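Worked example (supplementary).
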Amino acid sequence: ASEAGRAPGPPDGGWGWMVVFGAFVSIGFAYAFPKGLAIFFKEIQDFFGTSYSEIAWVSSIMLATTYGAGPISSILVNRYGSRPVVMFGGLLCGVGMISAAFCTSILQLYICVGFITGFGLALNLQPSVIIIGKYFLKRRPIANGLAMAGSPVMLCTLAPLNQFLFDNFGWRGSFLILGAILLNCCVAGALFRPIGAGTALVKTQVTEEGKDALKGKFTEDGKEMSSALNVPMENKTEDEGEKDCFKKINQYLDFSLFKHRGFLIYLIGNVLMFLGFFAPIVFLAPYAKHTGIDEYSAAFLLSILAIVDMVARPTTGIVANSKWVRPRIQYFFSFAIAFNGACHLLCPLASSYTGLIVYSSFFGLAFGMVCAMLFETLMDLVGAARFTSAVGLVTIAECCTILLGPPIGGILIDTFGDYKYMFIKCGAVMVLAGTFLFIMNYYNYRMLAKEEKERKTKEEDPKSVRTENEGRKNWNKDSTQDGPELEPLREEGEGVKKEMNGT
Amino acid sequence: LIIGVSGTALQKNVSVGSPAKVELTCKLDENSNLKNPQVTWKKGSETISHTSKTKNSWTIQLTISDASHLASYSCILKGEVEVSATFHLQVPKIEGKEKPIITYEGDLAVMVCKTEYAPMNWTWSMSNGTELVAINPSSDANKFRIKRQSANVNRLEILKLTKEDSGVYWCEAVFRLGNSKRRFELKVLSIFVPLKPFIAVVAEVVILVTTITLYEVYSKNKGEEGEREFDQIEQL
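After joint prediction of all chains, the assembly is encoded as:
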């Protein structure tokens, strides 16, 4: 019987593009909303009579919660799937901002805007990225690039919108309306239709042609061991099937990732990179004003950055999807980071306004490139199934350096009275991170190729089955999850069914 | 206070908070086209004599002790081309919010005035049609509060706002050498004003979510019908 009508592999299109749109909105709010709030800070500072740093805490708490709640988000997605989590997150954001409109003290603002809205945004960010991995494989870099483009687009929309709301409704009215606007995350969540079983676990070193021959694996962290016997349906939810208590812990948050070589490389490289990632954006406008440029031109620099960023992200996605780059996507990522660093190192040389415009454009390009591939490379390293846990663990680790980056830059500026040391520090950190990732990924690719060759020679299966390219020890470690698939492989009937389902 | 100005025609505002001795210097850039110019200092339109000069700079010293001494002083360098620079000596300006302040009924309104140098006194008043009504916090402590956050910063709080509180407010800083004023506009809105767009957006969200859910249910039903047919064909 032919089952060509069913596509157990990721659809790579169709409803997937609606999901990309939903992720675009969701990710956009998650990244752009904290930045957009800065417009209200002066007024709130005057209103409550606090100092600037006390107000800045609102932003910091929000950012810290959004990144720090990553693992919680991952656990919830592992348990319930992306859709309910995002819709609940949207509701939480809305409630947070609406209650913030009625706050009477700065402490209440910390809670409403900082914690509640921050947590809601965390519940938006992770699941959006995760569900892209479930819907796309061949076109995943493009999907990722498009979804991540939500951040600059939302920022460009939110900044003037916030200003307009503020001029017409004051900060309280604005918070009320922003709460309603954040409820649109629920709409994005509604688009995240749960996808059935059979999402393939894929790895690097797979060319476009090779992917067609790829056979998908059926389980997602062992939840659906018995799904090999079930015909997967288009709209089946992800977490049906028996759960072994064995797999229960790993099912919620996969800590075995810390033994995954690729994951560790990514983690160290990214944690290092984030030390120098955001500080230049924070200080670009002040630096411009410092060199004598007026306020509007300085703000214009940021607009240039955002516009270039907007275009760079989907473009990078398309480039990363091409058959020359996709197998070597990790190198492309390291290059993008090092390029970013080089921009910052060269920035002190740009003293005129034209020089700064050039810097902003290149910075926008580099920033967009890195962001577009941020999650794509992680998916590439750990595979779509373990990505849920991986992204949670990565964001909580990045949380610290993200928060530290701008203050360290600020200290450098205050100590030396000159912005150039901050740029040098950021540039150096990023070049270092890029080089580290490049070298380590070269090593990783070599090891993966070696292990693949070893496994191939050991395989006696007549059909060339390409499973996940994990390291030897990781493969054994995951054998509890892989176990159920090996059995059907040995059985002829199941094997044939599996092969058919993989095409 | 010593200020140096070089090059082409420039303007500079100098804030003088209290009586002081002020030195104004015009310095000519070495690479300038002008060589050995004739220099005149002017207060407003009348010429005054300069106090000292060096090869490329000309200075005047002024004692500012009352308001009449606050004016625009300019140095004019005449040669092949004419270059001038003007210093505007004035009382410190007040910084505050330019755009109207939007608040809501029952809420608190805050107006903050900030100056570069501390004035002797601050006064607040409200514009009532054509006259200015002074605001006295002690007479109505439940309504008005004036806080002195620092010598340079003064803050008016208006509590329990009502629609009648909308209007124009003035903050005045009194210096030895004169006064500085700033205008604030206060708008008090009712809670229903932002509620309308709020409800509009919530309605939009509800409509979209419902549409998406209905579409999904519809396509699911279609899919199931198709599968039932498929299974029947398989059985055959």
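Two points are worth noting when inspecting this output. The interface with chain B takes residues 1, 5, 46-47, 49, 166-170, 172-174, 176-177, 179-181, 183-184, 186-187, 190-191, 193, 233-235 of chain A (CB under 8 Å). DSSP finds 20 helices and no strands in chain A.
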